[in-house]
Amino acid sequence: MKLLLSKIVAGFVIGAGAIIPGLSGGILAVSLGLYQSTIEAITGFFKAPKKNFKFLFPLGVGGVIGFVLFLFLIDRTFAKHQTAVVSLFLGLVVGSIPTFFSEANNGEKFKKTNLIFTALGFAFAFSLVLLGLLTGDTQSGSKELTWFTAMLAGGIIMMGVVLPGVSTSFILINMNIYDNFLDVFAHFPDNPAQNLKFALCALLGILIVAVPMLLLVRKLLLKYHCQSFYFLFGILLATLVGCIINEVIRNSSGVSVWSILLFAALFAVGVAISYIMERAMKKLKMAEAEKEKEQALS
Description:
By secondary structure, the chain is mostly helical. The chain is built from 13 helices and no strands.
């Protein structure tokens, strides 16, 4: 039961990260140590359907709750408290870095050549961050959502989940469809027939992108485990830097000392939560593995 709740919470964090500007669901999955195991569970689902369903279902439930909840929060109150929320999530990411390195090295000694992959990952992700920062405010207005752009938005969201560091919100903002896409879900009852069509188109986009990208990433992680994780670490660093730059720009008019202290406190809380979640999930996984072993022997 405890492991189930922990996975729902983890899914909630990943789902929220998929829609919060500057973050991505994928980078939070990496930071929580669930990235590779989730991809393997999805791509190899039918090899052990019962086990994989048990692993994926709570993550999916939490992910949907986090995604939908933050859709409403962003639409109504998120803009007023964005820096505070981002501070908390950045703490979650930073607090998980030791676990990330443990999984990346996989029992092997650190190699200096791994830093090359970190640099490449940083360059890749930071170029996307710069694109978002440089072009996000140069366009005005909001484009009308069509079945094609809704499907494209779904594919982009899936891309952000599979490829850590790709901030789907930045891309959708640059395309001028972010607000209208959020309205499909946040104001669904206002026009249910049309919004259902757009929601189904988004789901189709997710499915089209998911299969080939998940298979490709799984192959890379299996064949080049260490290199792939150090590449992901570069992406993680770029995401952190990008979020900080984005929030500094947003608060360029100045913030009070009390606000800075609040952001620092929330960051510390995020680090603490990450540490607690990591230890709790590790213990629960060991207990679950021991239980499965006992059942296999009986």
